[in-house]
Design brief:
single chain, mainly beta, 10 strands, globular
Length: 177
């Protein structure tokens, strides 16, 4: 992972992220990530971009050499969400309101479960995009300061939010103003 935010990986990010049509690996890409209207926010498309940051990843392997756990930690990035208007086509989108968060750092632990799903536990500053196919169903884009736990099924790309604690900012509501 390149940033201290956990967003859905879109081919977005992975949004990611990243974020966003739905690889099951949350991350944030080097290039801005475009999330179509109805996927991250109900009424408009969003773009996610990040600058800076310094993260380090440690992988843990089982006897067969499979990654069973991964921890990423470090200094965060400046994460910017931009309202790109209602057009779902990135070529026609027009940048509007933006909101930027200083993600002062985070730790994300990813554990591979026996059934092949992944459990993410993210603490610190993290963003999470939930699609209409996720549980609970999105579209939502939320910036957290605290702790979030969610499962990802790599076979389906479905994210299942398990728990949150701390401060949550509804990015879509902030960008709709």
């Amino acid at each position: 992972m390149k940033t201290s935010t956990t967003v859905r990986g879109l081919a977005l990010s992975a949004l990611v992220a990243g974020a966003v049509s739905a690889p099951a690996q949350p991350a944030l890409a080097d290039e801005p990530i475009f999330v179509p209207a109805g996927q991250g926010c109900a009424d408009f498309s969003i773009q996610l971009s990040s600058t800076g940051g310094n993260l380090h990843t440690k992988k843990f392997y089982d006897k067969e050499g499979n990654v069973v756990r991964m921890i990423t930690a470090g200094k965060g990035v400046l994460l910017t969400y931009t309202n790109m208007g209602p057009d779902p086509d990135p070529e026609n989108a027009v940048a509007g309101e933006s909101i930027t968060f200083r993600t002062d750092g985070s730790v994300t632990e990813i554990v591979t479960n026996p059934d092949g799903t992944l459990t993410y536990t993210a603490t610190g500053h993290n963003g999470l995009v939930m699609f209409p196919t996720d549980v609970p169903a999105g579209p939502t884009t939320t910036q957290y300061v605290g702790r979030i736990v969610f499962n990802v099924d790599p076979a389906t790309g479905v994210f299942t939010l398990v728990s949150t604690a701390g401060r949550a900012i509804d990015v879509c509501a902030e960008l709709a103003d």
